[in-house]
UniProtKB/TrEMBL annotation:
InterPro entries: Gfo/Idh/MocA-like_OxRdtase_N, Gfo/Idh/MocA_Oxidoreductases, GFO_IDH_MocA-like_dom, NAD(P)-bd_dom_sf. It comes from Paenibacillus flagellatus. This is Gfo/Idh/MocA family oxidoreductase. Residues 130-251 form the GFO/IDH/MocA-like oxidoreductase domain. It comes from the Bacteria. Residues 4-121 form the Gfo/Idh/MocA-like oxidoreductase N-terminal domain. Gene3D superfamilies: Dihydrodipicolinate Reductase, domain 2, NAD(P)-binding Rossmann-like Domain. GO terms for molecular function: nucleotide binding. SUPFAM superfamilies: Glyceraldehyde-3-phosphate dehydrogenase-like, C-terminal domain, NAD(P)-binding Rossmann-fold domains.
Amino acid sequence: MGYKVALVGGGGIAVSHLEALRRMEELDAVAVADISKERAESVAGRFGIAAYTDYRDMIEREKPDIAVVTLPHFLHKEASIHAAEAGCHLLLEKPMALDARECDAIIAAVRRAGVRLMVGHTQHYIAHNRAAKRIVEEGRYGKLVMINDVRHVNYYADTRPGWFFEKAKAGGGIFMNLGSHSVDKLQWLTGSRVEQVKAAVSHYGAKGDIEGSGLAWLRLANGVPATISQSGYPGGVSRNETELVFTGGMVKLMTGQGLWASEGGAYVEIPVEQEELPFVLQFRDLVRYIEEGVEPSSSMDYSRSVVAVVEAMYRSHETGTEQNVAGEAVR
Ligand SMILES: NC(=O)c1ccc[n+]([C@@H]2O[C@H](COP(=O)([O-])OP(=O)(O)OC[C@H]3O[C@@H](n4cnc5c(N)ncnc54)[C@H](O)[C@@H]3O)[C@@H](O)[C@H]2O)c1
């Protein structure tokens, strides 16, 4: 019998976590809580675990060792603090919370309770991303001089749950949800944090009050500049491309699809070996953190920094000025 794991939220991503848990001997999924009874029961039935409609009830009765929080963003803070105070270690889905102040409240509660929390920055566990990170670290194509990250997706697709379109529940739109993956990717690939941001977003979506596109210029602490371009309006072809420009070559990363390099001329594909499921690798990092105290790459402090960058993007749009991630506008 391994650690008992309970899912707080039984939506789309909870299923990916449960599929990973099925493959892991050291972890046993025991229960799922979802405010929708129908959803809780269907997920619980599929994975042979108990169903609850109130996560507090679930934590009290099941006494899980680990709670996996997969709720809408506005509930990350209250659920994480509740689970930490009940003595659970935590895997909390990205983004850590709505803003850096909420992250601080979570961090304080986790430290007080003496439990471990890591955030599910899945980018760190995807084989193509890991291969790209090794290239950056080895300096295979010389010095990294800039990164351009481009994402297009129909963000307004009917399949997306409604809360993603409400700023009060999601914290923002495409930049908060998918932008946090891009910010994470830039920081993690380079091992450096974003310090300054200039950004502009637009609000022309057919539903909700969130931004449907965003363009940002960022500067990392190591001096490398980067851009993030995201568009979520219907139309156009889906894209998820990160281009890394080095002094001696270029690398194109299409997360989950492929990795290419050029030292002049056309891109040539770099073979990438498939590894274990990203969500399995993610859980393994959490177990190592719990058992050996090895802090994961998506530590609390790191994950807070991702939220702080997204906040700085919104501040930059609102004020029309370049922003320091730490707070004040750049003069
Ligand atoms: N790592 C990734 O690649 C990735 C991918 C998708 C989503 N996510 C993140 O996972 C989280 C969940 O996203 P999702 O796509 O699964 O959303 P979702 O809407 O499919 O799932 C959320 C679930 O929470 C339930 N819920 C709402 N309020 C509740 C409450 N008070 N108590 C219990 N259950 C409640 C909803 O009924 C819903 O089933 C978000 O933070 C999102 O950004 C991460």
